User: Fold this.
Amino acid sequence: MANRLIGYREGEGFLYRLSGASKLLFFVIVSIACMTTYDTRLILAVSLFSLFLFKQAKIRWRDISFVIKIIMVIATFNVIMVYVFAPYYGGKLYGTETILIKGWGWFYLSAQELFYLLNLLLKYFCTVPMAILFLMTTHPSQFAASLNQIGVPYRVAYAVSLTLRYIPDIQEEFFMIRTSQEARGLELSEKAGLMQRIKGNLQIVIPLIFSSLERIDTVSTAMELRRFGKEKKRTWYTHQAFTNADWLTIGLAVAILAVSLGLIFVNHGRFYNPWA
Assistant:
């Protein structure tokens, strides 16, 4: 189980007791709020709140470390590319430039550019932790029910549920096959070269993908034989009615969105300018 990437974990706490629909709405609304604004104060506050929720959910670092590392690599690459293509954008955006490091050619680092890149990086800490929290504290069946509860067609919701159920199984199969291959003498750990690891992992992944497609076809055929999708609506065994805690959660998300929109008027734009 320790090799699984992201999937539902049973646990205790208020996050596990909330309805999947309220958690989904909170994630979507707060993500919109964080994507709308570049006000560092709000983004930082939401990021710290996300870390607080992680502590409350008692999610272990080893359960998410691999995914977090991948996301951090992607985020860092994104920030570097933004700087490479527009190292002067921060100064143009905030109306002034305070040179910190003189480079060569058109490459230099200003305090304004560094501040802008920091905002881009903080946006990942706003949305990614909440997405992981939602996936790890919401049962796939309840996730499907919550999607249908907020208006998503149940056929789509059920497809998402099946995907979330299959991903952990595929991950476990991959790690089991890789471990057995290493036991037979095929080195796929960090001791092996990069190309050898890529080639060895592809030899496992490609057949695994085809076998997974066969499973999907089998499940789809079985569902069609049971006349799945014939009716316009369906009931859900894991449906959970809203409680006061759910309404408070949604209200908090709406409040964060309202603050995000209000800051646009206060800052006369999406960006918070400490040099104004």
Remarks:
- Residues 140-237 form one domain.
- The radius of gyration is 23 Å.
- The chain has ten helices and two strands.
